[in-house]
Amino acid sequence: MNGRHFLASLCGAFVVASSSLAFGSAPAHFGHGARSEALSRADVADADATSAPVQNAALAAEPGLRVRLGYAYGFMDLRIDDRRASVADVSGVDFAAQLGLRLPASFSAGFALAAHLPDGQIAKIGFRPGTEPQFVRYESVLQRATFDLALALRRGPFSIGGGASFSLDMGGAGTSFELGQDARGTYADAASDITLPYRVAPLVGLAVDLGRASLGASYRGALAVGLSVESDIRIALAENPLNGTTHVSVRGSSGWDPARLSFGGRLRVVSGLSAYGAVEWQGYRAAPPPVADVSLDVALGTSPGRKEVTFVLPRFRDVLAPRLGLEWVCHAGKPGGPREEGDRKIRWAARVGYSFLPSPVPPQTGFTSYADASSHTIGAGFGLGLGRHWGVDLRVDLSAQASILEPRKEQKSSAALPNASYTVSGRSFRGALSFEGAFR
Amino acid sequence: MPTRRTQRLSALALGLAAFVGSASARAGAFEVQGLGPEGVAEVGARAARAEDGTAAFFNPGGLALGKGTTLSVAPLVSYSALRAQGERLPLEEPFGIGFAASGTVPFTGPLENRIRVGLAFHFMPGGALRLLAREVDKPFFPYYDNRTQRLVVLPALGVRVTRFLGLGIGANVLAGVRGPARLEDGATGAPEPRIDIAANTVLSGVFGARIDPTEHAHFALVVRQSFGIPLSIETTANVGGVPLSTGIESRQAMFDPLTVVIASSFDLARTSFEIDASYQRFSAWEGPFLSVRSTLPGVNLASRLPEKPFRDTVSLRFGVTRPFDIGPRTSLVLHAGAGVEPSMLSTTRQGRTNLVDGDKLTMGAGATWVLKNVVGKALRVGLGGNAQFLSSERQEKKVCQAVPCPESTVAGPSADNPASNVDNPGLPSLQSSGSFLTFALGLGVDL
Predict the structure, then answer these.
(1) Rounded to 5 degrees, what angle do the CA atoms B160, B171, B60 make?
(2) How far apart, in whole angstroms, are the C-alpha atoms of residue A187 and residue A189?
């Protein structure tokens, strides 16, 4: 087996991966902004305007200009056979901006963007051997920058919105290596042609605000980082038995984020107390294998025993995730609500939320050893409106989330299969802090 | 004197700007092709006058002294008539769409009309990036190669300190890549990849100051930090008990040099003149090639790349504008510019590599039709173009006659007779010349 060719091809893949910029899923998993996180993303019908690109694009039409900056840190303690798995903590900065304008005929229109930038990196491309136990929903997919845009139009109680979530594939003509020698000795050269074409997933939202109650629906398309790289290697060394050429192809999808369809409602139960509910469909059935396929075309003095590695579709299941939330605001109004010039009264809000996310991963019976389990998430938080200062309504929100994975045991039919028996469990804790300024 | 609250809010605003800057942002196309029809026509001599969204690139300090809200979109196309060894070298991504926006943050009180934000954006229809690493012996122009093939998002924030002083900061952010990868024999019996690559944030700043001692005189200082994408990938494998390792590295892919611009502008009657002097520190660039290392028992292979093939340059650019009223609400603004810039290549004789460049003379012209109070305060339609002419250059190659061969020579495959069968495309001499044309069409509105 000529490992050097394989390594060279991997280098080609990594050069491609290295230029990658992926957008996806930490906000869709935890929420974008401390208020949404405290409500466990049950705010589909009445999200903050700055959260509209993530929660419901139709809510971006609120008149005014808002800018929100926040930070969140999630401690991940996920376990396989009661030993902590190598799942990195999830942390980063959230930024959002929204501009809404009043138009004639009682219309208003708005534009919003929401971005998430993980600490220290813009993207992470991770592929593990397919037979190794791995938390496919908590690894690379949560370590990416995200960028969502939304446009919305509102008239009276009705709002409609659309937008896009952006990602980049990785491809191009590939990388060629030449390992050769001349009169000065050996040399190793490489040339690459790498492209990052755009990949866009649609966002669609609808909302109706009836005063005491509101309803909302939101759709987000599936997104992933597609990796496709070709490598050609030529070795021409004097008296080397491995001289020849090799073509290597590496293909895969890293950190797939499923399509999501959400329906939600808000009901003002009593003055100041609102209840939120949502149910979210997540289309995991279309998920590609989370491991890379490799194929070789070898013309060398030696040949590898296996020239192709391809894993079958993981056959994940679609799931429905219910979400519930409560928000209690002071009688003066919501922390982010309208104010008069010079109004510096403190406003407050307290929030709690709950969500249940069934596992899309079926029982593992073959070579693959994907690790996952259904999870319960509890959120809590509060918000403070700090008043209008220099024309800006200032607000701060804080939240905490705790998630528990239901213990799960995988038992394959044959003890000869890799990782024939293992258990999955875990928990995560997360805190978020957001500051928002609104110009009206 | 600012209160503590003022200071806190200013800090928050700066923090917001710093974050906005952390969106993916790059500046390469603006350096090579230009920005907007006015910038193209005036060959980039705009550091002392730009106050709209384009100031995010030209001078964030000028952004601070602007007014109102501006939006503009400007498709741009370039044509390369550059030639090396008699062959035309086309620009790989010649078409892009520029976008610029600026606005004043609507604070009241002590911050009123003091904080402005701007954005300059370059969009490639085909994708966000195309990274080309050329074969080591291929003739090409590193000044143009790869530098236009990137999405550019350059946000900036300007602070009007006094009526005549504006300071600004922009951000140039991308991702570098580091990480290990291994090839292992998996449970299936086949080699399975284990990849753990992180695209880490790389940040460089754009800093600008503008001083207006009078209404008709402007001075500017702009510093753009150098920028390059680091790639460093180490792979290891154990195949049949044989340990193997290979690494690829490029510390400064898609390089933009440290640039310092000193500019001044003054008005004579209705005509504005500007002169910009730019220092570009190309000597810090290690080169456009990928470095490869491969190690296995008995054989170590490594790239042989030239050291410091570039030198610093100082360029001069001149720009002039003159408006003509052609109706009660209509005016035509004419733009023209010229610039000179020496070659970035050092005088060291090259060995296997065949990098080419030349002294550059750039001339541009354009016009902007301004229609007031039709859409917003003013609607602007502009057209600009420039042509960059490169001097004809000839670099002699030297063939190695006997081992050990110096790095400045080319050699054939045989150590016994290194002068035989030399197939370097730069032989017997490396010749280059040509021109580079850019045209931009712009539509803008002042709100």
Answers:
(1) 30
(2) 7
Q: pLDDT at position A80, please?
A: 95
Please name which of A217, A192, A193 lies closest in space to residue A206, comparing C-alpha atoms: A217
Q: Which residues pair with A150 in a beta bridge?
A: A112, A163
Residue B163: other Cβ atoms inside 10 A: 8
* φ, ψ dihedrals at A26, nearest 5°: -60, -45
> Looking at beta carbons, which residues of chain B come within 8 Å of A291?
192
With contact defined as beta carbons under 8 Å apart, do B20 and B117 qualify? Answer: yes
Distance of residue B397 Cα from the nearest chain A Cα, in angstroms: 16
Q: Could you tell me which of A192, A195, A189 has the C-alpha nearest to residue A174?
A: A192
Structure tokens at B301: 């292979």
Please give, rounded to a whole number of angstroms, the shortest distance from the CA of A186 to a CA of chain B: 6
Token pair, residue A148, equals: 């969502």
**Which residues lie across from A328 on neighbouring strands?**
A273, A350
Distance CA B73, CA B52 (A): 12
Task: List, in sequence order, every residue forming a beta bridge with B440; answer none if it has no partner.
Answer: B76, B384
For residue A134, what is the DSSP state?
Answer: B
CB contact under 8 A, A124 and B129: no
In chain B, what residues touch A304 (CB-CB under 8 Å)?
191
Helix, strand, coil percentages in chain A from 3-state DSSP, rounded to 5: 10, 60, 30
Give the residue from A122, A149, A340, A434 with the most B CB atoms within 10 Å of its CB, the best one to mutate: A122
Q: Which residue has the tokens 């229109």?
A: A109
ipTM: 0.80
Taking the mean position of all CA atoms in its chain, how far away is CA A188?
A: 38
Exposure letters A186-205 (e unless 16+ CB within 10 A, then b): bbbbbbbbbbbbbbebebbb
- Residue linked to tokens 């600026």: B102
Our CA-based measurement puts residue B88 at a distance from the nearest CA of chain A, in whole angstroms, of 19
Whether B303 contacts B265, CB under 8 Å: no
How far is residue A354's CA from residue B312's CA, in Å, rounded to a whole number?
Answer: 61
**A390·B129 Cβ contact <8 A:** no
Of B186, B290, B411, nearest to A184 by CB-CB distance is B411
Chain B within 8 Å of A240 (Cβ-Cβ)? yes
Q: In this predicted model, what pLDDT tens digit does every residue of B297-317 receive, in sequence order?
A: 667 888 888 888 899 999 999
Q: Which of A14, A305, A389 sits opposite B181 (nearest CB)?
A: A14
pLDDT value at position B22?
A: 37
Least confident residue range of A157-166, A191-200, B10-19, B89-98: B10-19
pLDDT band for position B186 (50/70/90)? low
- Mutation pick from A94, A178, A189 vs chain B, by most beta carbons of B within 10 Å, is A189
